[in-house]
Amino acid sequence: MASIASVKPASASVSRASTTTSPSSLGKGIRLAVFYLLLLVILLVFITPYLFSAFAAFKTLPDILAQSPARPPMHPTLENFKTIFTQYDFGRYLLNTLLVTIILTTGQVLFSMLGAFAFARMDFPGREGLFWMYLATLMVPNVVTLVPLYVMFAHSGLLNTYWAIFLPYVLGVPASVFLMRQYFMTIPKEVMEAARLDGCSESRILWRIVVPISRPIIITATLLAVVFGWNNFLWPLIVTNSNSLQVLSVATANFNSNFGVQWNLILAASLVALIPMVILFAIFQKHIVRSISLTGINR
Fold it and tell me: What is the predicted pLDDT for the residue at 152?
């Protein structure tokens, strides 16, 4: 009887605990549901324009003008893609964009890496002041430098050439230098000092120690440069006037003329230009998230 009596208070306490914890767990579940619902709404806001564009890329122009953009194509057609590649030499524009993007990305990442290493781990007079002066150029809009750059290239005879498209951006940009510098500063000084004691030069320290450790931020800077080079529009539009030198963004904009807007061709070309960027982000998104989470750490 004593054992039975002792069990009853214990069971009663368990039931009371469950009743006291259930409202809090219920509130937590409601908060999670509201949070994920809000995330779903944000996702729909961002993905809806791309979804509508993908739908329209497989429609004819009369269907685009007559139907709702939210309506999937009832009779999908590849005629828009065939037109841009056969009648408008879109393959040439793709090759031009790919060439410019590769050269721009290679130079931008390489020179940004050299500058970031100098600002992060090399001691020289005025290092901090020079870095902040260089970083302050981020506040200068790109349109402010368009006219001086155009005049420089005009006097140099480089207008309407590949050089004019990528040369202003190939020597590094402040944003990439800043990201890499912040990441390089997370590498302990003891590692580099030990390498110097072993007789390593600064260039060897950079390529043998810093670069392998900093692969996530280098991949991120590379992706940023690729996206910029792939989508760059205003500068190639200004410095080129030949169809053989057009890039994707300029060629796509040319479908919008004074005589009409060819929405079917514009959206098909936009989808062609978008697919490589989506694939790149899907492959390297882990490195992007990791590098961004670590760039604010400074030892």
Answer: 93
For residue 121, count other CB atoms closer than 10 A to its CB: 17
User: In this structure, is the dihedral angle defined by the CA atoms of residues 70, 76, 79 and 82, taken in order, positive or negative?
Assistant: positive
CATH class of the domain at 89-262+272-294? mainly alpha
**CB count in 10 Å sphere of residue 42:** 10
Domain ranges for the chain, please list them.
Answer: 24-77, 89-262+272-294
pLDDT single digits (tens) 156-206: 999 999 999 989 889 888 888 998 998 898 888 888 888 888 888 888 888
From the CB of residue 111, how many other CB atoms can be counted at a distance below 10 Å? 16
Biggest CA pair distance of the chain: 105
Dihedral Cα 227, 230, 231, 237, nearest 10 deg: 150
Of residues 114 and 123, more confidently modeled: 114
Both tokens of 279, joined, read 């694939």
Backbone φ, ψ for residue 208 (5° rounding): -95, -25
Contact indicator for 84, 263 with CB cutoff of 8 Å = no
**DSSP3 helix / strand / coil % (the chain, rounded to 5):** 80, 0, 20
The backbone torsions φ and ψ at residue 142, rounded to the nearest 5 degrees and listed phi first, read -65, -30
Q: 113: closest CA among 229, 22, 260, 212?
A: 212
Q: CA–CA separation, 1 vs 11, rounded Å? A: 16
Q: Six-digit token pair at 59? A: 């429609």
Residue type, 127: R
